[in-house]
Specification:
GIY-YIG endonuclease, 5-stranded mixed beta sheet, alpha+beta, 20 helices, single chain, extended, 631 residues, Nucleotidyltransferase, domain 5
């Protein structure tokens, strides 16, 4: 591999002037922005021809002018073959995550059923990791619920062990699984290995979807057992056949060929692209996966090409056939690469007629339906936010909402929380929690003032302000929020307070009266009461309840730490060893508390300064706290 850098050219120099330095070899090109960051990575069979296309204004895609406007440098990586360029492109996209490249966000590994065939008594269990330990792996399975249900069926029908190796080795008598006839009990009982292997084979046939073959085998064994008067065994086989017939895996489509296929469908409206992948295993549709790309003007061929480059990575299963809705120029190279990974022939198809065309059409229809559902969901969110804007007379639709809540018990362990909702959905990466530092006692208003000041002083510095600031509370909390924004000079953020529903008793009828949730606005005397079952109120309640949950969770965490702590914690120089020495010497915290400075210094490692610090620390602790900690 050879690297050629084109750095040093003036930023306003046309790409055409650089073409003389470009080779006609296959390779990868990296477009860089003004700060030296990689903004696009692409591969080419001929680097000169590919970059020349950009120099001439691109191919009509809307994104190209924006990309070229930021382009200040091009770096070329020459490879020996187009296949090597394909591998390198995938590596560089993952490394640099360029702005103008497609990136698959869902790169999780999928469930496999592991069969520990290297064990004398194999067991079946789910795993996400494939390890070369001699075991057999079935999958991948994209719907975890479905495969868990299938395993549960297997456990009811085939009496195989489910315990771990450690439990299996240390058992001296059969467990409950044996008693309810879900295990043969090889841990403690003499079990014929042939019978165990027969049960295992039946379970594997069920997992592989070969229900008909399995039922035929069990039927033959049942008839043989009945012929020789082994009626108990025949009855057990009959029950297995009945269970298999009633709980067979439900499939939406079956193909006559019975091979493994991945079918890609694509639907787009402008720059919004939806890709749907259907997974067919042994001729049966077992799952699907979808990808969405916004503001993407690349042609369908390039979208699918980049997606395929990243799709078959890691432990992902490679099928016999990959069926696509468009023709890819480098289809033969991709076939060669996938064949190497699978270890057998893999074919990329662009069908023109027959059943496979109908499969592609089905994948595209699924992609279209998924796109419409997402767009409808996005439109509903926009509608809800607009309703909220009009109902509360906000300046802008509150696309980003930050909500704050305070949690404490009579001022003790006071904490604050901030939750963020973006486009009506929780953005948990932006959640923040605050330990109150400057307020003593139970003063919720002062605590709210501290939290809001700390948050928005930093938000102003980072230009990270929300559309709507929301506090859990009424006029008092709202006034605090308004004052904080005024002090910090923030004028373009809407502020509201949401007061919880009040429960009162009517003095005349003794009936319980529930008041509505009230929304308080700055400069307005009376609160706004939204309709009880409106979508807008539901969103505000969801945000408020999430802030309350987040604050309570943090408060409980601190309380748990305090209960497990000691009054000696925090004393300078007193660590775990000296704390243990003190308790061992005096026998209890009460005696440590009552000890004089001279008595404390008799403990090895405790200096007079430490003794005075211990007495000062324990002086602020009440006797009840000491007794509680001692318990």
């Amino acid at each position: 591999m050879e690297t050629v850098s084109l750095a040093g050219h003036p930023a306003d120099l046309a790409l055409e002037a650089k073409l003389a330095t470009l080779p006609t070899s296959p390779g990868v090109y990296l477009f860089k922005g003004g700060g030296g960051e990689v903004i696009y990575v692409g591969k080419a069979k001929s680097l000169r021809a590919r970059v020349r296309q950009y120099a001439r204004g691109g191919d009509g895609r809307v994104q190209i002018p924006f990309l070229l406007a930021q382009l200040t440098d091009v770096e070329i990586l020459i490879t020996r073959s187009e296949k090597e360029a394909l591998l390198l492109e995938d590596t560089l996209i993952k490394q640099y995550q360029p702005r103008y490249n497609i990136r698959l966000k869902d790169d999780k590994s999928y469930w496999h059923v592991k069969v520990s065939t290297q064990d004398p008594w194999p067991r079946l269990f789910l795993t996400r990791q494939i390890v070369k330990d001699g075991s057999k792996y079935l999958g991948p399975f994209h719907a975890s619920t479905a495969i868990q249900e299938t395993l549960e069926i297997i456990r009811k029908i085939f009496p195989l062990r489910t315990c771990s190796d450690t439990v299996f080795r240390n058992r001296t008598r059969p467990c409950l699984e044996y008693q309810i006839k879900r295990c043969l009990g090889p841990c403690a009982l003499p079990v014929e290995p042939e019978e165990y292997q027969r049960q295992l084979k039946g379970a594997l046939l069920l997992l592989e979807g070969k229900n008909t073959e399995l039922v035929d085998q069990l039927t033959g064994r049942m008839q043989e057992a009945a012929a020789v008067l082994r009626f108990e065994e025949a009855a057990r086989l009959r029950d297995q056949i009945r269970a298999l017939t009633q709980t067979g895996e439900k499939q939406r489509v079956a193909l006559p060929l019975g091979n493994d296929q991945d079918i890609f469908g694509l639907y787009r409206e402008g720059g919004f692209v939806e890709v749907q992948v259907l997974f067919v295993r042994a001729g049966k549709l077992v799952g699907n996966q979808e990808y969405s790309f916004d503001d993407n003007e690349f042609p369908d061929e390039e979208v699918l090409g980049e997606l395929l480059t990243q799709f078959y990575q890691g432990d992902r299963f490679v099928p016999d056939e990959v069926i696509l809705p468009v023709v890819l120029e480098d289809a033969s190279v991709r076939e060669e690469l996938l064949t190497e990974r699978k270890g057998k022939k893999v074919i990329l198809l662009y069908p023109q007629r027959g059943d496979k065309v109908r499969l592609v059409e089905m994948a595209q229809e699924n992609a279209r339906q998924s796109f419409l559902e997402k767009r409808h969901g996005a439109e509903q969110k926009e509608k809800t936010l607009d309703i909220l804007r009009r109902a509360l007379h906000l300046r802008n639709a509150p696309k980003r909402i930050e909500c704050f809540d305070i949690s404490n018990i009579q001022g003790n362990l006071a904490v604050g929380s901030m939750v963020v909702f973006d486009e009506g959905e929780p953005d948990k990466n932006r959640y923040r929690r605050f330990r109150i530092k400057t307020v003593a006692g139970a003063d919720d208003f002062a605590m709210m003032y501290e939290v809001l000041t700390r948050r928005y002083r930093r938000a102003v510095e980072e230009h990270d302000l929300p559309d709507l600031l929301m506090v859990d509370g009424g006029k008092g909390q709202l006034s605090v929020a308004v004052e904080v924004l005024r002090e910090l000079g923030i004028t373009d953020v809407d502020v509201i307070g949401l007061a919880k529903m009040r429960t009162e008793r009517d003095p005349f009828s003794e009936e319980v009266v529930h008041s509505a949730e009230r929304v308080f606005l700055p400069g307005r005397k009376n609160p706004v009461v939204l309709k009880p079952h409106s979508t807008a109120l539901f969103l505000l309640q969801q945000v408020r309840d999430e802030a309350h949950r987040f604050a309570i969770t943090y408060h409980r965490l601190l309380r748990a730490k305090e209960r497990l702590g000691s009054p000696l914690d925090g004393v300078p120089g007193i660590g775990p060893s000296r704390r243990k020495a003190l308790l061992r010497h005096f026998g209890s915290l009460k005696r440590v508390y009552a000890a004089t400075t001279e008595e404390l210094t008799q403990v090895p490692g405790v200096t007079p300064a430490m003794a005075e610090a211990i007495q000062e620390q324990l002086r602020v602790k009440s006797d009840s706290q000491i007794v509680k900690s001692e318990k």
